[in-house]
């Protein structure tokens, strides 16, 4: 197996000099550096990235703790788009991603900090990790640069990014009111995530702004899944006092709500209006076309990566939470009922 000692012998220099050339150090003469590089190319030497990482304390890897409540993993319709754009920026900067599995018993017992240090990652992305995870305080205090999405993680080397969930929810309610709706239900978040909590806050603020009643029986918990939206909507429609519109805290719940509305004999977008949140790619296959609040997923992933690089490169960097604006996408599932009220 070819080593740096073989390169050093052929070039007539020390192994330390070869190491400096490999790591791009500037304290090696130009002629010597060119000679070493030529011999490396001639012999086809490939440096051991793990050994180099131990020597330089820079592994050129970013760790990702990726979780979601439903254990859908990379199949998650919202998180996968964020990960794709995050990966692109990371790769363009010469880094690789290390994904930490979370479904092995040993991994449940070991902390985020311990696992990150075992892999010698230069930084971390936390995606889908619940607010209640006991590992969070340790990772904030560890000194490992860390960026989270939809999780309010703040510390000396930690920051977070999220969409304007409150503003997005208010936009959804404002649109329903503009279309004449006064009886509006909300399918919320049973997990008490930051996005779910903020969307409920936005819903209530908008309802209060328009002086509309907020009925507890019309706010039902959901789990961001299609089945969760279906069951909550089915329960909602069993009442004698029905809303004219339902706002779902996630698109997958809205897709489930569509099925429950149809089963009850109602027409989506005519008898009962519907709005989702996220604008997932799957919506292109859904009929009728769902009105929703769009999260700018590609921008979220890109900015999370860029912010993480700032945290990794400058220990004195003063970070602050990043909020990405949302956008109302009007399609076919909200009826105009002004003339009916």
UniProtKB/TrEMBL annotation:
GO MF entries: DNA-binding transcription factor activity; transcription cis-regulatory region binding
Q: Which SMART domains match?
A: HTH_LACI
Gene3D superfamilies registered for this protein in UniProt? 3.40.50.2300, lambda repressor-like DNA-binding domains
Where are the membrane-spanning stretches? none
Q: Which UniProt keywords apply?
A: DNA-binding, Transcription, Transcription regulation
Indicate the segments forming the HTH lacI-type domain, all copies: 2-56
Keyword DNA-binding in record: yes
Entry annotated with the keyword Zinc: no
Q: Which Pfam families match?
A: LacI, Peripla_BP_3
All copies of domain HTH cro/C1-type, residue ranges: 2-50
| Name of the protein | LacI family transcriptional regulator
